[in-house]
Amino acid sequence: MVYAFDSSTIELCLMLCPWATFHHGRGALKMHRLMDLRGSIPIFVRLTDGRVHDSKVMDKIPVEPNVYYLVDKGYVKFDSLYKHFHLKNAYFVTRAKDNMVYEILERRNVDPDGGLISDQTIRLTTVKTPSKHPDILRLVMYEDFSTGIVYGFLSNNFQLEALTIADLYRKRWQVELFFKWIKQPLHIKTSYGTSINAVFIQIWIAICDYLLLIIAKKQFMLEPSLHTISNSIGQILFKRGNIRDIFNQPTLSANVQEAEFVDQLSLW
After folding, report:
1. Mean pLDDT for the chain?
2. Which residues fall within 8 angstroms of residue 112, CB to CB, at 6 or more apart?
3. Angle formed at CA 176 by CA 190 and CA 37, multiple of 5 degrees
4. How many angstroms separate the most distant Cα atoms in the chain?
5. For the chain, how far is it from start to end, CA to CA, in angstroms?
6. Cβ within 8 Å of residue 128, ≥6 positions away
7. How does pLDDT run across 187-231, given as a tens digit for each residue?
8. Residues of the chain with pLDDT > 90: what percent?
9. How far lies 124's CA from each of 76, 78, 127, 130, 139, in Å?
10. pTM of the model
């Protein structure tokens, strides 16, 4: 089980939405989400104004033992990582900050052909951080050969291979697929209302739409992509037809497809 937690900023017109004060005269809200990477499925979503720091919402997400949580370095609060994940027997993988101060307790051999530079057991040594995270940590240094950029990955897991730690973090990009979906196929590009309630309701409707489409795709074993299913349902939403026939048997005539759709949709 691998979850990715991240947030995205949705810009709003500050003149129309004065409640959405962000910074530099801009208006925005934030969508914080925890994604199940097995299917880009959101299992936790929280909407806040744009000024709420990402790390303040991390303590609100549900945590399961023996599960991996991927977070970027904007969420690196060592006390939260320790109390919210480590003490609950959950694993985290995040980016190490450049100014992190630590001592090296152990070095393990790595395969440089895979991009690995080092795999170390470390302990934080600044004045305050040891009290926030008193246990040891794992630091994996990895070079992306395509860009030449060196990354430091921080984790509390010592069982996985070092390259697996790096690969896990790269899976974080999937969390952006959901936000891209909310912004594009579900058309959350303009707001139909200006109050905080109106804007939040519009986004929640889009999230529910996304989840219903995922449920339909799984329950009826639909072959096309989620985007294709969404576009098709939008065109024949009030027609009658069999969902499986419409999406999995393209040889059926359009009239037959349209004639059988809503019966299945209503039952579902």
Report:
1. 82
2. none
3. 135
4. 72
5. 28
6. none
7. 455 667 788 898 888 888 888 888 888 888 888 888 777 777 777
8. 31
9. 13, 10, 9, 6, 11
10. 0.79
